[in-house]
Amino acid sequence: MVVKVLTGNHAAAYGAKLAKVNFISAYPITPQTSIIEKLAEFVDSGDLNAKFVRVESEHSAMAAVIGAAAVGARAFTATSAQGLFYMYEMIWWAAGARLPIVMGVVTRAIAPPWSIWTDHADFLALRDSGWILLFARDAQEVLDTVIQAYRIAEDEEVMLPVAVGWDAFIASHTAESVDIPSQEVIDEYLPAKKEFAHMLDVEHPFSLGNLAFPDNYMEFRWLIDKSMNAAREVILKADKEYGNIVGRSYGGLVEEYKCADADVVVFMMGAASGDGMDAVDELRDEGYNVGLCRIRAVRPFPIEEVRKISQRVKAGVVIDRDVSFGFGGILAGEIKAALYNTDKKPPIFNIIAGLGGRDIDVRIVKQAVINAYRFIEECKEPKELEWMGLRQEVLIL
Amino acid sequence: MDGFKTRGVNFMSKLVELFSKEEYILKGNASCPGCGAALLLRYVLKALGKKTILVIPACCTSVIAGPYPKTCFNIPVMHIAFAASAATASGIAEALEIVNKKDVNVVVWAGDGGTVDIGLQGLSGAAERGHNMFYICYDNEAYMNTGIQRSGSTPIGAWTTTTPGGNTTPKKDLPSIMIAHRIPYIATGSPAYPQDLVMKIRKAKKIEGFKYIHLHSPCPPGWRFDASKTIEVARLAVLAGVWVLYEVENGVFRLTGPSRKLIGKSKRKPVREYLKLQGRFKHLTNEQIDVIQQMVDDKWERIKSYIK
Lengths: 397, 308
Hints:
- The complex is a heterodimer.
- The longest helix of chain A is centred in the middle third of the chain and has 29 residues, at 217-245.
- By secondary structure, chain A is an alpha/beta fold.
- In chain A, strands 3-2-4-5-7-6-13 form a 7-stranded mixed beta sheet, sandwiched between helices. A 6-stranded mixed beta sheet of chain A has the order 10-12-11-14-15-16, with helices on both faces.
- Chain A has helices spanning 8-18, 33-45, 58-70, 81-86, 88-96, 121-124, 139-153, 183-189, 217-245, 273-285, 303-312, 330-339, 362-378, 392-396, and strands spanning 2-6, 23-26, 51-54, 75-79, 102-107, 132-135, 162-167, 176-180, 207-208, 254-257, 264-268, 290-295, 297-299, 315-320, 348-352, 385-387.
- Chain A has 2 domains: 2-245, Rossmann fold, CATH 3.40.50; 254-396, Rossmann fold (3-Layer(aba) Sandwich).
- In chain A, helix 1 (8-18) runs parallel beside helix 7 (139-153) and helix 3 (58-70) runs parallel beside helix 5 (88-96).
- Chain B is of the alpha/beta class.
- Chain B has one domain: Rossmann fold.
């Protein structure tokens, strides 16, 4: 094991290298680009034995990794925002074709207006695509999750692509000390990619993706759903075994922080959860029994985990770095849906914050929690949705 | 078969030698009667052989293949989204090298819409990167699978459902765009001249790098002619000089097959004879046909300059 000071993006490149990816295709976009620059260096120096196809668009990047994975390569790509949307058609194709591709998504707000800074609108647009969606908090978790992602994607019960998300700049370009596991350790954790039944092979002719009439299509979708549900156990196991072999694990589909005795739990995803944890510590010092549940997996969604936590608390606060216009935060919607058919559901307060790279700081999290407590104590009608950190002086213009 | 008879037994035995007996697109496929594309694909696959992976974007062949769980192909086939064929094949071609599977032909088989319109960016990128693969366009000169809508490859004057008064712009000359990419091999082909086509594919198989083949693919329902006339239409296209058989090997342009003898205008049949076989051109006036004839003659003047 070596400790290096790495950005989140370089950590992703080291993760892909340790996973021994042998096919990379990508198109430049800020803030993703430094991942593929680093991978290009690895390939160029011979440190990584892989083909690197420098395509003319993200649509082609995803098409190329689909082709490569279909003949048995371990394929990696990465993108952000507009690039993700440009490849969107092929994203669904990768899942439908059941190819275990891993993609880094450095989350960036969608234009217009142009923005290169983080929010989660791009990542969450993958929600229904059939990809497993994991979100990392910092550079270390990015490296570890990219490696775990191949274990999960290539599991026979799963055979679905995995997107690993992390926040633009806050995680992607902030240098932190990162433990880099040795290749021997990762080789023990992640076996070489096996051949699979629907691989394209001239010795075993097979048609992948041909027309399915209404009497067959639905079963393909049911099978994806089945695998997605099976992926819950696989994600947990992949994280646990990573802990056993490499020495770090994150809790599986969620990471719980001081949730055990909490009255109020904050649900968050991504880099700002770090500020959320600081807020929890400060609030606890001030006498509030607060915990934080960091969402690591958006698909499959941690339904059971969210239910278990919610049964114990008096209120939940969901801080969404995204918005579904005319509805509210996307994570809040998912969490509420997970709780609807349970007997004991706490009120859920939904905060929209941090869009387009605006800070989600400790104050925002604290304020959101204190508002929830005020509701509990005063039994007021819950304010279901609140945008925090809006600048009135901009709106007046 | 009159062309074969006059040339005698030796030629026939040579033909038998040229065409593999193996079938890679099987009987009972879902092509229309008289489909030019299915004929072309049969010849192409015979020339390519068993060690071939086909990449097919949305096009008539997505349907010809037959619905799950059946397929008319006995080689591996990757069906892929409309604009994605060239990039997918480039991924396959590069990945096969890294997983140590050599001597496999990676072949895109795409229609004209998937090639000259929605797939052009991906095609250009793949060609420029120089992957070891084939890109074969079967050009039926409109979006036939969706019901005869105009593409960038629809010839001037042609009726389609989106050009009910006739197409007003000339056909995009995609092989010339590919020539500008300076790839090692470019060729055209026609189902009326299968030996020319098979020899080109067999030659291209031995060439490392990006190979582009553009095939004339008469479509009875789309072009409005009887399904028994496919070869006649294809042959007249060549003999009238509307469709030119050639290859460009390492930048050197060479006419092939009957096109070799059609440089002089007097050697070519009038374009009118080709047009009058097809209902899609029946509304054309004499003046419009003269304009099309002039465009064909101008094209041959350009071809003369390539050969000099």
